[in-house]
Protein: Peroxidase
Amino acid sequence: MLHTALLPFLLLNFAVATAAPPLRPHFYAETCPEAEHLVRDVIKKNMEREPRSAASVNRLQFHDCFVNGCDGSLLLDDTPSMLGEKLSLSNINSLRSYEVIDEAKETLERVCPGVVSCADILIMAARDAVVLSGGPDWEVKLGRQDSLTASQKDADDIMPSPRANASFLIDLFSKFNLSAKDLVALSGSHSIGKGRCFSIVFRLYNQSGTGRPDPTISPIFRENLDKLCPLGGDGNVTGGLDATPERFDNQYFKDLMNGRGFLNSDQTLFTYPKTSQYVRLFARNRNEFLKAFVEGMIKLGDLQSGRPGEIRQNCRVVNSRPIDVLP
Structure:
């Protein structure tokens, strides 16, 4: 999505920002051969300090790539002239672990300054968070450049709500050439991590404005959630997205089949015919899930904006600022 308002900005920066080469594995084999090892080491150390950081880091790829491609725009802090994505409706008080990406970038800058993009760090880190949680490993394609801007509005317009249903999500994912199977497999990233009570209070007490709980929630599970998330309670209290929130496995899908999905957008995958077949498949066959998840992550990582970019020195700010453009 390229807004005409951005054209002066992009044209101005053409001299310092050029189109990226095609993505490929081992992109940094000659320019920064230790890049992938260094990023994984940072992720491992952070997971040892806080296991929940694995899920937080993994989520960053989806939230970055869906908004104008995988370009690190998610990482930019707001400026007086730009409202970025961090405070968008889907990200504020939700996304975490930006400091983990900062640490990885600082580590790489000491070894090979100005070489590895923040956008590529996000891709490597998301993969490593899965691997270190017991999930599959895969070869990531690299060579992305970092965006020169970010847009809170674009994030608000694109990113789905925890209240979204499967039909809406299928339509949304199809816009990015991602299938219903990709949707269900990528939703399996919720095999690790926790969600906030804020995201499910409506399910517990006022589903679809009925003043009643979501009937698809298992009664026993609903009792547990009622205790965790009482009406009028602290919306920032968290609960596991599945029964094994620190282990990347297919328990998430088994939980959906038993009415134990934490988020509405998760449970609806089992109640909707076009997605329930994949929930059943992945629940009974872990290898099928892992294979589909890797395929989905690679396809997600291929999303590109086509805009010129740069290699940021600091993931939170662009290297150079645009000057005023005369009308």
User: Anything to note?
Assistant: Residues 1-17, 323-327 have pLDDT under 50 and may be disordered. The two ends are 24 Å apart (CA to CA).
